[in-house]
Specification:
503 residues, mainly alpha
Length: 503
């Protein structure tokens, strides 16, 4: 119970404050939980690991949950994971049931968050215990499997694979360190840039650029629209909410939370897939599927339980295998790196207090999200009216200050922020996938080390196929992932061409 000494008033305040800021970010269309975590990441250095994680996990939970506000009131998803909340939430708001729809979504979000938290608490230690048996070979195959899964579930498989390998390529820029099995020489460095790139690009400025500056450039391109007028926001204050609306929806809530948790465990998939799959399952199993899309409360429950179910699930591969479940948890790796801690199979065993503090922070964040949003939902509804031309200059300033100070005042980190911010903006034009890119960037150095160490230890490439039964199972999963992705790509092309899918 030593971890209770870490639960100070500051810890609780940071978890609650992070949740509040996260809800505000999520409630403003165009701003996401990932962006909130990226901007606040440099602040965690001075807070210490547990307090810093309390802030970031609060931002994560709040950011995912806040997206339901504009989705219901404006028909605009505040975050990508709230897209299916629009389908039934907005019709309810249009007929004067906005407050009722919001409260349904808030309660479903709480259920999804708590169920995924239970999955995290029980599954992550068991998976970590199992992963401790992995040698370099199995660790390399795990990373390869993660890359194939995230590529398979990208909107375009080939571009997803290309984005992932591009991230790996960029991560290898710098000196090939002898401690990693290298020769100590520079590699992939343009002439004249040796001084700045001998250590490669720093992770945190890259993350802030891709998820902070890119979003600002995207909004600037749209012309910085003004915030909504308060007169346009229909909360429907007189709509009556009753818990009886959840009668007969327990299975829907549990199933959607489970789908969200499972999707979260898959690397690089994201909350939008979780909400879409949950919504689709709810509609296909409903006795009244014709009501979906016209203001059916069950649709809001499925969407919000699904996307909040992601929050705990995405932490399972991060804390047990060192593989981020989505782009937001990829940013959490930056928080651990700032404190000199590496996540992976040994993390939970060696950092029991930190692990318990994270669970407490998630509980506090989920409860704080529920209390704040349920009882002050009308105030949060006004957030969507804040003009972006006031918000974005402030956010841009925070991005630059964060990038500059994160490595004790290195100007090249600000240039890194700009380079990757512009790259992220151009990548969206070229249909490249940012999530596979950043996960490839994070996992690339580890993949190289495990690959080289495997060859040094065992001699030749056949060891990757014959090392152990675990290696064989991983190859089956890799091949299955690729096969499913090819099948999904063919069906998508057939549907786009209007042809009947193959049996």
């Amino acid at each position: 119970m030593d971890f209770l000494s870490l639960i100070s008033p500051l810890f609780v305040m940071l978890a609650i404050g992070g949740t509040l800021v996260g809800i505000i970010f999520g409630a403003i269309p165009g701003m996401t939980a990932t962006m909130a975590v990226a901007i606040c990441l440099p602040l965690t250095y001075s807070l210490g690991l547990e307090n810093g994680l309390a802030l970031l996990l609060g931002l994560y939970v709040g950011g995912i949950s806040g997206g339901l506000v504009p989705a219901i009131l404006l028909g605009i998803p505040g975050t990508p994971s709230s897209i299916t909340t629009c389908f039934d939430g907005y019709p309810m708001a249009q007929r004067g049931e906005g407050e009722k729809a919001l409260r349904i979504g808030i309660i479903a979000s709480l259920v999804g968050g708590l169920i995924s938290l239970a999955a995290l608490y029980f599954f992550a230690p068991a998976l970590a215990d199992f992963a401790i048996r992995f040698s370099y070979v199995e660790k390399f195959l795990i990373i390869l499997f993660a890359l194939t899964v995230m590529a398979a579930l990208s909107s375009n498989m080939l571009l997803g694979i290309f984005s992932g390998f591009l991230g790996i390529f960029v991560s290898l820029i710098g000196v090939y360190d002898v401690t990693d099995g290298g020769n100590g020489h520079f590699r992939l460095i343009p002439p004249g840039t040796d001084y700045w790139l001998d250590g490669g690009f720093s992770l945190l400025p890259v993350l802030i650029g891709l998820f902070g500056l890119t979003a600002i450039l995207d909004e600037a391109e749209k012309g910085m629209p003004k915030g909504m007028s308060l007169d346009q926001i229909k909360v429907g204050a007189h709509s009556r909410f009753s818990f009886s609306v959840f009668k007969g929806q327990v299975l829907n809530l549990v199933r959607s939370s489970g789908i969200g948790t499972f999707v979260g465990i898959l690397p690089g998939v994201g909350g939008s897939a979780a909400s879409i799959l949950s919504y689709t399952a709810a509609k296909t199993t409903s006795k009244h599927p014709e009501r979906f899309g016209k203001g059916e409360p069950g649709g809001i429950m499925a969407s919000e339980a699904g996307n909040n179910g992601l929050t705990g699930g995405a932490l399972v591969p991060l804390l047990s295998l060192g593989i981020p479940g989505d782009s937001t948890t990829a940013l959490l790796i930056g928080a651990f790196a700032l404190q000199g801690i590496q996540v992976g199979p040994l993390f939970i065993g060696n950092n029991g207090d930190t692990w318990n503090a994270m669970i407490v922070a998630m509980i506090v964040a989920n409860l704080a999200m529920f209390v704040m949003m349920y009882f002050a939902i009308r105030w949060f509804a006004m957030v969507v009216a804040v003009p972006k031309h006031i918000l974005y200059p402030i956010i841009l300033m925070m991005c630059v200050i964060g990038a500059y100070t994160i490595n004790y005042g290195i100007m090249f980190d600000v240039w890194t922020l700009l380079i990757f911010g512009v790259f992220g903006w151009l990548a969206t034009k070229l249909k490249l996938e940012i999530a596979p890119f950043i996960i490839g960037f994070i996992l690339g150095p580890s993949a190289e080390i495990y690959f080289v160490k495997s060859l040094e230890s065992f001699g030749d490439l056949t060891i990757f196929f014959t090392k152990s039964p675990i290696a064989v199972v991983l190859w089956v999963l890799i091949i299955g992932s690729v096969a499913i992705s090819v099948l999904m790509a063919r069906r998508s092309r057939q549907q786009a061409a209007g042809e009947p899918p193959l049996a």
